[in-house]
Amino acid sequence: MLKKERQAYILHQVNLHNKVLSSSLSADINVSEDTIRRDLMELAEEGKIIKVHGGALSHSFSQVHFPANEVYSLSQKKRIAQKAISLISNGMFILTSGGTTILEMARSLPPQLKATFISGSIAAILEYMNHPNIEVILIGDRISKNSKITVGPEAIAKIKQMKADICFLGTNAIDLHHGITDNDWEVVQLKRAMIESSQKVVCLSIAEKINTFQPIHICELSKIDMLITELPSDDPLLKPYSDAGIKVL
Amino acid sequence: MLKKERQAYILHQVNLHNKVLSSSLSADINVSEDTIRRDLMELAEEGKIIKVHGGALSHSFSQVHFPANEVYSLSQKKRIAQKAISLISNGMFILTSGGTTILEMARSLPPQLKATFISGSIAAILEYMNHPNIEVILIGDRISKNSKITVGPEAIAKIKQMKADICFLGTNAIDLHHGITDNDWEVVQLKRAMIESSQKVVCLSIAEKINTFQPIHICELSKIDMLITELPSDDPLLKPYSDAGIKVL
DNA sequence: CAAATTCCCGCACAAAAACGCAGAAACACG
DNA sequence: CGTGTTTCTGCGTTTTTGTGCGGGAATTTG
Asked: What's the pLDDT tens digit per position in A181-199?
């Protein structure tokens, strides 16, 4: 059998079944696995397939992408993300909400990090999935089309039955009197559950949202352990919060 | 034998068998392999054939090398999607697996349709989310990075506790003896649960996958209610399946 | 963390290709 | 017709290509 012929066969199999094993291909066409591996390498270099340990995958399969629209005040969010990441260490169980700040954090996670991320936000999940070493747990339930996260009693029940090491909340509004507030009733339920189920609660918020509030109450400031903004921790704007016992980063 | 004559013979052989070996041609017409090689060179330069190490291939052969980022046999999948959609009506609860065929169906759903789609496939969920009127239920659990779907006991338990009107399975391999088979253990568990939880099971499969099988068994043919391919329902290839009591669309 | 796969690297060997050459046949032309 | 030229072919020799194998490194998995 000619080399090109063999490669065409392999390509065909990959496209047909989305996944092939070097071992089974080797058995199929009676050549050594080494040869198969070399074929897979070449096909991968030509961009026809994706080589993985033990075989290959079809390209069309892993091609899940999300319309990444313009992010508001990106650079600030990047700074927040960096600070948040410094709180994460290997082996942690981490609950996250949705929101563009969280997304930015997800994108910036260091590749060596091994941790478990739990979320109901579709966009966040997509980012986590691209990471080589982290385990991703998706919280299921009905999807809210507004917020692109799963909401509902199932999701809340699922969150309540876990105990995460840390919880990162993308915060919409935070205020000394009203605490944390938001404008989507379903999202609020979710966030409340996440706060209850985490040892440590970290709020990510751009400074613009500090001292603002929204119609629906999530929780008192006392439930929050840490607040991260793009400002330096000694910025006067944040003073009242650290006075209130919140660690400001 | 004249040179032109010889080359005509070679060209004929290539077009007939899609492939020729220099060695066998040399034996056929009793000339040295060197001569054959020179002929193949010339024919290749004229664009009549494709020269490869050890022989030559016909053009139709490498024409299978479709652009790398396109979905394999997209037009067939579109036809399958259309047929599948004709089974859906307003108010239904619909379970779907993942796979590019399912994805194609998700993209083609008519905008007025009001139904509830349930899936653990991230890619499918993204499509469903774009639809204005359908309700989306996401099945949660650990995400398998290979297959981009949620897998694990939680997901299976969740599926088992529902009763969907209809279930669309993107099928990897279907065969009269082996029934439905697949190559990913975790995916198989999921699909089994989906079959059990649906009143009606519909397999979507491009004709190429008919009468093929993979290592892991999902279920017997008897569990399947309907089979959809891109072929007309009276195609002889499908006859055995309709004889086996499966409705072929 | 230990066992089992899978991968990677270098090597050996065989098959095929490239190259140069030479002889034979075909051709051109005065 | 003779001679020079071109084309075609086959034969060594050298390179290149394709493949399998062994052993050690790396990765996966229980």
From this structure: 999 999 999 999 999 999 9
Backbone φ and ψ for B68, nearest 5 degrees, come out as -70, -30
B172-199 CB burial, b ≥16 within 10 A, e <16: bbbeeebbbbbbbebbbbbbbbbbebbe
Protein-proximal nucleotides of chain D (any atom < 7 Å from a CB): 8-12, 17-22, 27-28
Residue B66: its pLDDT value, please? 53
Q: Is A140 on the interface with B (CB under 8 A)?
A: yes
The residue assigned the tokens 């339930």 is: A141
Q: Is A3 near chain B, with CB under 8 Å?
A: yes
Alpha-carbon span B186 to A187, nearest angstrom: 31
Local confidence band at B145 (pLDDT 50, 70, 90 cut-offs): confident
Q: Which domains does chain A have, with CATH numbers?
A: 3-58 (1.10.10.10), 74-248 (3.40.50.10470)
Instruction: Give the model confidence (pLDDT) of B110-124 as tens digits.
Output: 999 999 999 999 999
- Whether B231 has a pLDDT exceeding 60, the answer reads yes
B115 close to A (CB below 8 A):
no
Q: Which two tokens stand for residue A159?
A: 């969150």
**A21: which nucleotide lies closest, measuring CA to C1'?**
C6
Write the secondary structure of chain A as one string of H (helix), E (strand) and C (coil).
Answer: CCHHHHHHHHHHHHHHHCEEEHHHHHHHHCCCHHHHHHHHHHHHHCCCEEEECCEEEECCCCCCCCCCCCCCCHHHHHHHHHHHHCCCCCCCEEEECCCHHHHHHHHHCCCCCCCEEEECEHHHHHHHHHCCCCEEEECCEEEECCCCEEECHHHHHHHHCCCECEEEEECCEEECCCEEEECCHHHHHHHHHHHHCECCEEEECCHHHECCCCCEEEECHHHCCEEECCCCCCCHHHHHHHHCCCEEC
- Nearest residue to B249 via CA among B172, B168, B181: B168
- pLDDT number for residue B73: 80
> What does pTM read for this prediction?
0.82
For residue A201, is pLDDT > 90?
yes
Contact A48 B61 (CB under 8 A): no
Average pLDDT over residues B136-147: 90
CB contact under 8 A, A150 and B143: no
- Residue A64: pLDDT band (50, 70, 90) is low
Judging contacts by C-beta atoms under 8 Å, the chain A residues touching residue B55 are 2
Which residues are within 7 Å of strand C by their Cβ atom? A 21-23, 33-34, 37, 41, 52-55; B 21-23, 33-34, 37, 41, 51-55
For residue B93, the cross-strand partners are B116
End-to-end distance of chain B based on CA atoms, in angstroms?
A: 55
Which whole-number Å values give the CA distances from A48 to A15, A25, A68, A191, B71, in the listed order? Answer: 9, 17, 25, 43, 12
